[in-house]
Task: inverse folding
């Protein structure tokens, strides 16, 4: 199972995550993230908000909880239409790739256009590892985007990711189904969705 989690967390996995910045592109465009210290703050907040939320739902899906109920509950906890669309787009991409690599009846039981954390939970099948995968993806994608958008030192950026309490968040996510919000990320997602002109990332 750990190998499955590692494959899903690999940036080369063809799940479509590379086209999403997790709000980083809009934050950079507004001058909110400009260097390593501001990136650290952004990633820390993202991990404790959107990361914890996604990790909790991945753990619940791995435990075998009702997938349709989880999908509806995650929708209710994601007030931004742009955020919901991004989660479902990544879920579709990950589901398509997972069906080829790990076909199963449980994958076929997922709702149409499922949220990404549910796909991760079903594929990984172990709550902590599923939560850890989601928590890591919540910061690794935006970190990679920061290198591409801002030209930050990749060694410094990866040191930031390594310093974050990803495992602690995953452990917490296994104990409860979070009901917290990330209003700043919601606002950035909606602004990014309305932005005209060239965008490097879909969200």
Result:
């Amino acid at each position: 199972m750990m190998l499955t989690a590692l494959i899903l967390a690999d940036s080369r996995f063809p799940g479509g995550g590379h086209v999403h910045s997790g709000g980083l592109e809009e934050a950079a465009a507004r001058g909110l993230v400009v260097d390593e210290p501001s990136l650290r703050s952004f990633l820390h907040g993202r991990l404790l908000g959107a990361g914890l939320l996604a990790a909790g739902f991945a753990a619940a899906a791995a435990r075998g909880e009702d997938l349709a109920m989880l999908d509806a509950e995650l929708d209710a906890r994601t007030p931004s239409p742009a955020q919901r669309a991004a989660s479902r787009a990544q879920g579709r991409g990950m589901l398509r790739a997972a069906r080829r690599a790990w076909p199963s009846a449980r994958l076929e039981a997922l709702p149409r256009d499922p949220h990404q954390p549910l796909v991760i939970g079903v594929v990984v099948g172990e709550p902590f590892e599923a939560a850890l995968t989601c928590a890591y993806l919540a910061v690794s994608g935006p970190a990679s985007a920061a290198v591409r958008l801002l030209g930050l030192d990749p060694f410094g950026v990866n040191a930031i990711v390594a310093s974050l309490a990803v495992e602690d968040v995953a452990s917490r996510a296994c104990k409860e189904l979070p009901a917290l919000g990330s209003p700043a990320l919601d606002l950035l997602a909606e602004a990014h969705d309305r932005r005209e002109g060239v965008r490097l990332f879909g969200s």
Remarks:
- The chain has a mean pLDDT of 90.
